[in-house]
C-alpha cells in the first residue's frame, strides 16, 4: 500500500517524529487506566469513580485539542508540540516528586495529562502539510497510528506498578517522553507554505459549515470508542473476568495494538475506495463487535476476541475520517483537526464514564457497550444521508472537477 511516490512526496523524518511524539504522548494520556486497579485499591474507589478517573484525562485532552489546533495555525505545529511536551514532562515530574495522596489529586493529574492527549491536534497537521491529497489518508494514518501508545501503557504500567509502586510509574513515564522530545526538536520540521494566521472569528467560521459538524460527529464515535475502551479495558477485564491487573493490561494492549495497526490501513483503504465507503463498513462491524461483547462471555479469551474485533474496526474508522477531512478543509486543517479531535475525546469521555456508571448501577458493563453500539449505527445513518451531497459538492469546493476519493 506504500508506493515510492509516497516517500518522495513528503518529509519522512517529520512523519517519524510526529508518530513518536504522538505515540508516547498517548502512552501517558491514558496511563491512569492501566494503573487504575492499583489506584482504586489504595483509595477504595467505586466503579463510578474508577470510570470517571480514567475519563477525566480524555475529556481534558478533548477540550485542550481546540486550543492546540488554534496554536498550530498561529505559531506552527512544531512550536506547539514543544510547548505541550514541556508541560506534560513538568506535570509528571512534579506529581512524582510531591506524590499523589488523594482521589482528587489523581483527577488533577488527569487534567494535566490531557495536554498529552492534545498532541493529536499537533502531530496530524505536522505530518499532513507535507503530503499531497492523494497521500493524505496514508500519511495521517501513519502519524495517527501513534495512538498505539495507549497499548504501551497497558503493556508495561501494571507490571511496573506491581514492582515499584504506581506512583513511581508516573516518574518513570517521563523518561521515554524526554527521549521523544529530543528527537522531535532535532528532526521535526514545519512544512513550507503554512497558511497565514487568522483571527479567532475566522478560525471559528469553520463551525458555520455543516460538514465540519458531520466530521466531528463521525469521529466522536470512531476515536471516542477507541480511546474510551483503551482507557477502560484494564479495569474492565479485571472487574468483569477477575483477571490480575498485569494480565488485564496484556489483554488491553492486544486490543489497542490491533486498533492502532488498522488506523493506517483504514486511511489507505479510504485513499483507494473512498472514505465514505470505508466508514460505512467500519460502523457496521464496530456495532456488531460491541453488541456481542456486551453479553457476558463464558471465557475472557472470547471477550478479548470480540473487543479486539471492535477496536480494529474503530481504528480503521479513525484513519478513514482523516482521509476525508483534508479533502474538504485543506486550508483549515489545523483548527479542524482540533475540533474533530475534541469531539473524538468527548466521545471517549462519554464511553469511559458511562461504563463505570453502568457497572455501578447494574453490576454489568452491558448497557454502556450497547449504547455505544447504537451510536455507531446512528453515525452510519447520518453518513448515509449526507454522502450524496458530499460527492456532489466537495470537488467544486476543493477547486477540482474530479480526483477526490469519497
TrEMBL record:
The keyword Transport does not apply. The keyword Coiled coil does not apply. Keywords: Membrane, Nitrate assimilation, Transmembrane, Transmembrane helix. Coiled coil: none annotated. It is found in: Membrane. CDD domains: MFS_NRT2_like (cd17341). GO terms for biological process: nitrate assimilation. GO terms for molecular function: nitrate transmembrane transporter activity. GO terms for cellular component: membrane. The chain crosses the membrane at residues 20-40, 52-72, 81-100, 106-126, 169-188, 213-237, 243-262, 274-295, 301-321, 333-353, 365-386. It is a multi-pass membrane protein. Residues 13-391 form the Major facilitator superfamily (MFS) profile domain. Belongs to the major facilitator superfamily. Nitrate/nitrite porter (TC 2.A.1.8) family. This is MFS transporter.
Amino acid at each position: 500500500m506504500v508506493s515510492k511516490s509516497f516517500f518522495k512526496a513528503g518529509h519522512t523524518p517529520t512523519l517519524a517524529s510526529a508518530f513518536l511524539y504522538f505515540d508516547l504522548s498517548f502512552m501517558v494520556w491514558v496511563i491512569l487506566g492501566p494503573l487504575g486497579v492499583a489506584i482504586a485499591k489504595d483509595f477504595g474507589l467505586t466503579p463510578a469513580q474508577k470510570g470517571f478517573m480514567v475519563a477525566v484525562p480524555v475529556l481534558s485532552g478533548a477540550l485542550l485539542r481546540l486550543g492546540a489546533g488554534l496554536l498550530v495555525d498561529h505559531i506552527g505545529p512544531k512550536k506547539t508540540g514543544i510547548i505541550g511536551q514541556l508541560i506534560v514532562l513538568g506535570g509528571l515530574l512534579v506529581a512524582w516528586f510531591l506524590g499523589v495522596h488523594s482521589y482528587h489529586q489523581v483527577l488533577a493529574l488527569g487534567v494535566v495529562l490531557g495536554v498529552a492527549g492534545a498532541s493529536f491536534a499537533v502531530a496530524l497537521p505536522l505530518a499532513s502539510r507535507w503530503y499531497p491529497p492523494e497521500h493524505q489518508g496514508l500519511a495521517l494514518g501513519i502519524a495517527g497510528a501513534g495512538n498505539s501508545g495507549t497499548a504501551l501503557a497497558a503493556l508495561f504500567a501494571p507490571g511496573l506498578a506491581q514492582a515499584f509502586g504506581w506512583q513511581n510509574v508516573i516518574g518513570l513515564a517521563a523518561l521515554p517522553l524526554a527521549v521523544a522530545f529530543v528527537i522531535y526538536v532535532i528532526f521535526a520540521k514545519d512544512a513550507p507554505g503554512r497558511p497565514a494566521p487568522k483571527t479567532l472569528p475566522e478560525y471559528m467560521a469553520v463551525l458555520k459549515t455543516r460538514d465540519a459538524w458531520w466530521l466531528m460527529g463521525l469521529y466522536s464515535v470512531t476515536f471516542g470508542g477507541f480511546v474510551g475502551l483503551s482507557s477502560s479495558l484494564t479495569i474492565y477485564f479485571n472487574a468483569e473476568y477477575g483477571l490480575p491487573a498485569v494480565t488485564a493490561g496484556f489483554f488491553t494492549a492486544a486490543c489497542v495494538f490491533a486498533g492502532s495497526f488498522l488506523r493506517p490501513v483504514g486511511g489507505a483503504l479510504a485513499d483507494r475506495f473512498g472514505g465514505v465507503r470505508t466508514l460505512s463498513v467500519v460502523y457496521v462491524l464496530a456495532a456488531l463487535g460491541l453488541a456481542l461483547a456486551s453479553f457476558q462471555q463464558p471465557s475472557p479469551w472470547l471477550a478479548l476476541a470480540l473487543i479486539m474485533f471492535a477496536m480494529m474496526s474503530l481504528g480503521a474508522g479513525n484513519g478513514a475520517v482523516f482521509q476525508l477531512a483534508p479533502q474538504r478543509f485543506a486550508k483549515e486543517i489545523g483548527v479542524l483537526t482540533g475540533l474533530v479531535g475534541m469531539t473524538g475525546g468527548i466521545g471517549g469521555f462519554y464511553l469511559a464514564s458511562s461504563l463505570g456508571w453502568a457497572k455501578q448501577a447494574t453490576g454489568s458493563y452491558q448497557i454502556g457497550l450497547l449504547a455505544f453500539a447504537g451510536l455507531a449505527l446512528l453515525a452510519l445513518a447520518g453518513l448515509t444521508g449526507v454522502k450524496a451531497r458530499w460527492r456532489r459538492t466537495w470537488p467544486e469546493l476543493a477547486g477540482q472537477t474530479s480526483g477526490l476519493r469519497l
